[in-house]
Write a structure and sequence with these properties.
This protein has six helices and nine strands. By secondary structure, the protein is α/β, with parallel strands linked by helices. It has a single domain, classed as Nucleoside phosphorylase domain (Rossmann fold, 3-Layer(aba) Sandwich), CATH 3.40.50.1580. Strand 3 and strand 4 form a beta hairpin. Helix 2 crosses helix 5 and helix 3 packs across helix 6. The longest helix is centred in the last third of the chain and has 25 residues. It is globular, with a radius of gyration of 18 Å. Bound molecules: hypoxanthine (HPA). Hypoxanthine (HPA) binds next to strand 5, strand 8 and strand 9. The site of hypoxanthine (HPA) has 14 residues, from strand 5, strand 8 and strand 9.
Length: 278
């Protein structure tokens, strides 16, 4: 499959036919722990992924599949309720679709959240990590294949992918949030298996503070088309081998549910504080 500009336009044209002249400013991709935040979106217009031509359909448990357009904290958002992962069987190239379609809908800024395992032993389950940078040694780039120049250049700089200004805002909003907020490096593993203890030790030696199975394809796609990014990770568990216990999807969900009220309040504050882009 060749992903041309027209390929993405087809999705965008359909969405435009549903949302009329609504102009979303912020693209939201809500991971585990913030799934329910989308219920706060006012005057929502929902579009099931399966209705959108050339789009993807999510298969992960607990990830419903729809786009939600509306206003939250006074900000016009295009929210993905349910995201796509390479472990579901999608190629890295296919994973360029969601953020490129956001770009075509006029989104100026991407905010992506996820659940992750803490590699840094100073972190605790329930803590939040503002993503400062990432390490992705697995798999291809979502920008592999013929470049689509309407989005960006063939070779593109990602040395400030996780925009410093946005990170500072997220940090300030963390004060009095009741959450412990860190800034660290997200180390991508493709999953769906959790990492081995040796992989977690390797990630730590290489500079990773958390491990997770999502987000990097989305943020790289945003970086290619010049969209500033804020990434937030919720530590739902200590990564494999850190503690003498097995990892499970249940632990991830339990922590996410426990922290959800504080996380939602924090996230609302961050959204409100984000700069307005022209
Ligand atoms: N590893 C990878 N992804 C995750 C983890 C983990 O430990 N926890 C939540 N998502």
């Amino acid at each position: 499959m060749e992903y041309t500009y027209d390929y993405y336009r087809k999705s965008a044209d359909y969405i435009r036919s549903v949302i009329g002249d609504f102009e979303p400013e912020i693209g939201l991709i809500l991971g585990t722990g913030l799934g329910k935040f989308s219920a706060r979106i006012e005057d929502p217009v929902e579009i099931p992924y399966k209705d959108i031509p050339n789009y993807l359909v999510s298969t992960a448990p607990g990830h419903s599949g729809k786009l939600i357009f509306g206003t939250v904290e006074g900000r016009k958002v295009m929210c993905m309720s349910g995201r796509f992962h390479t472990y579901e069987g999608y190629s890295f190239e296919e994973l360029s679709i969601p953020v490129r379609v956001m770009k075509l809908m006029g989104v100026k800024l991407l905010v992506a959240t996820n659940a992750a395992g803490a590699v840094n032993v100073d972190y605790r389950p329930g803590d939040v990590m503002i993503i400062k940078d990432h390490i992705k040694l697995n798999g291809f780039s979502p920008m592999r294949g013929p470049n689509v120049p309407e989005f960006g250049d063939r070779f593109f700089d990602i040395s400030d992918l996780y925009c410093r200004e946005l990170r500072q805002i997220a940090e300030q909003c963390g004060e009095d949030s009741g959450l412990t907020i860190h800034e660290g490096v997200y180390f991508f593993f493709p999953g769906p298996q959790f990492e081995t203890p040796a992989e977690v030790r390797a990630a730590r030696i290489l500079g990773g503070d958390a491990v997770g199975m999502s987000t990097v394809t989305e943020t790289l796609t945003a970086g290619h088309c010049g969209m500033p990014v804020l990434g937030l990770s919720l530590m739902t568990n200590m990564a494999a081998g850190v503690l003498e216990q097995k990892l499970s999807g249940e632990e991830v969900e339990e922590t996410a549910q426990r922290v959800a009220p504080l996380l939602e309040a924090y996230f609302a504050k961050v959204l409100k504080a984000l700069p307005h882009y022209e």
